[in-house]
Amino acid sequence: MNAPEVLIICRRAPYASSAARDAIDVALSCALFALPVTLLLLDDAVLQLLPDQQSGGIGQKNPNAMLGVLPMYDIDRLYTSTQSLALHGLEDVRLDPAPIVLDQAEIRALLARHPRVIML
Amino acid sequence: MMLHTLNSSPSDRTTFQSCAASLSEGDSLLLIEEAVYWLLPHHRHELTRLPARILALEPDLLARGVSSAGVNYVDDAGFVELAVTHGSVINWF
Predict the structure, then answer these.
(1) Using the beta-carbon criterion (under 8 Å), do B40 and A60 form an inter-chain contact?
(2) pLDDT tens track for B60-84
(3) 20 to 30 A Cα–Cα from A60, which one of A18, A113, B28, B36?
(4) Angstrom distance (rounded) from CA A24 to CA B61
């Protein structure tokens, strides 16, 4: 039997709550058990991808670095939506790491093929 | 003369609108935490019609990768200075 694929959806800005860190923790935990993981950043969570975040001054870990290491754990599907980019006018901004951008139909298809969804 | 602090993201319009409607001439509005995203180019124009002086907290700008270009910003000591030099402090969150 194939391992069930897990879709993690995060909708929160970095640092605002533990949600952004929790999403990465859950993704890494799934990877530890060889569960295929996809991470979808929606709404304010797209702000986790703004480049050059220097979080030392607020005593937090840098989301660019934390998301950037996920491919080393075979988590290489990082998605966002056109709608989320448009919310903050980030369509033409270089994001770090760069996500795959999906339209609403593609988001629905992504949800439809993942029986296991974790919302954070 | 009041100091208003706002900490919510532009995705929370209700908090912004209540804060904006409460500003008087001479007040200061300090953007902290997720409110520094109001300074992204896409949102910044909404601040221009506010009567208050707009400031941002520098560690929060840096942490979130938001450019400080053209922004008045203060560090933590500056935040304290603002708090003691204004008659009252109102936190919008």
Answers:
(1) no
(2) 999 999 999 999 999 999 999 999 9
(3) B28
(4) 23
The answer to whether residues B62 and A57 touch, using CB atoms and an 8 Å cutoff, is: yes
Global pTM reads 0.94
Q: Contact at 8 Å (CB) between B93 and B7?
A: yes
**Is the pLDDT reported for residue A4 higher than 90?**
no
A35 SS3 class: coil
Contacts of A13 in chain B (CB under 8 A): 9, 34, 37, 64
Contacts of residue A2, defined as CB under 8 A and 6 or more positions apart, other chains included, come to none
Report DSSP state, residue B25: T
Q: Is B78 on the interface with A (CB under 8 A)?
A: no
The alpha carbon of residue B19 and the mean position of all alpha carbons in its chain are separated, in whole angstroms, by: 10
Q: Are strands B2-6 and B28-31 parallel, antiparallel or unpaired?
A: parallel
Q: Closest Cα partner for A35 from A23, A45, A47, A27? A: A27
pLDDT in tens, A13-45: 999 999 999 999 999 999 999 999 999 999 999
Quick check: B92 and B15 in contact, CB under 8 A?
yes
**Residue A92, exposed/middle/buried by CB under 10 A (0-12, 13-18, 19+)?**
exposed
Concatenate the DSSP letters of all residues of A46-70 into one string: GGGG-S---GGGGT---HHHHHHTG
Smallest CA-to-CA distance from B31 within B65, B52, B13, B55 is with B55
